[in-house]
Design goal:
Elements (H helix, E strand, L loop, with lengths): L2 H25 L9 E5 L6 E5 L5 H25 L14 H16 L3 E3 L3 E9 L4 E9 L4 E3 L14 E11 L2 E7 L7
Antiparallel strand pairs: 1-2, 3-6, 4-5, 5-7, 7-8
Length: 191
């Protein structure tokens, strides 16, 4: 073998090893990002920007959790309305007091009439405030434009003119088990 052939073979071996190593690096788990740090990468692999945002305080985390409770609440209500075989006691995973009683009553009516829900409720722009860190006033825009309630024949039972988007007010409490909706007034205003 000539020197030139050996150099080409060695170069090809180095190139193959680089490709294998690069592939192995891309298949590995991503490195953990420290809490409160966001990494943004452009399409160019040679440029990335890291910005550090301060972590949320416990009070700020509670506000976010209270806000997130409204989306969880509606997700459970949707799930129960879509599947009448599920136990209405699942309401207690997201609601207590007036909100839980009202939800069980409404869902029980759906079950008795063989009504089922199709689609999903969307919750946007939740905002929470608190005076004591235990009880939160939360408002959120609830969008039911993709939701229908149908009877056992598949006919919609939603009243004509139902507003698709309304902002509702809720009371959310922080308990040792998590955050729960306790008051749902069902009085909406345009979003």
């Amino acid at each position: 073998m000539t020197t030139r052939s050996r150099n080409r073979a060695a170069g090809a071996a180095v190139l193959l090893a680089a490709v294998v190593l690069a592939s192995a690096c891309n298949d590995s788990e991503p490195a953990a990002t420290p809490s409160g740090t966001t990494t943004i990468s452009n399409t160019s692999p040679s440029t990335s920007t890291t910005s550090t945002t301060p972590p949320l305080t416990p009070a700020e985390e509670d506000l976010r959790s209270a806000e997130g409770t409204i989306a969880r609440y509606w997700a459970v209500l949707d799930e129960l309305a879509a599947d009448p075989k599920k136990s209405l006691e699942l309401v207690t995973t997201v609601a207590r007091d007036q909100a839980a009683a009202q939800s069980r009553n409404t869902l029980g009516t759906y079950q008795a009439k063989s009504w089922t829900l199709t689609g999903q409720t969307s919750v946007t722009a939740p905002t929470a405030t608190t005076k004591d860190g235990k009880t939160f006033a939360v408002s959120a825009c609830v969008d039911v434009s993709n939701v229908n309630i149908v009877d056992k024949a598949g006919k919609s039972v939603v009243r004509a003119g139902r507003p698709d988007q309304q902002r509702y007010a809720y009371t959310v409490v922080k308990a040792p088990q998590g955050f729960f909706v306790t008051v749902d007034t069902l009085k909406g205003q345009p979003c």
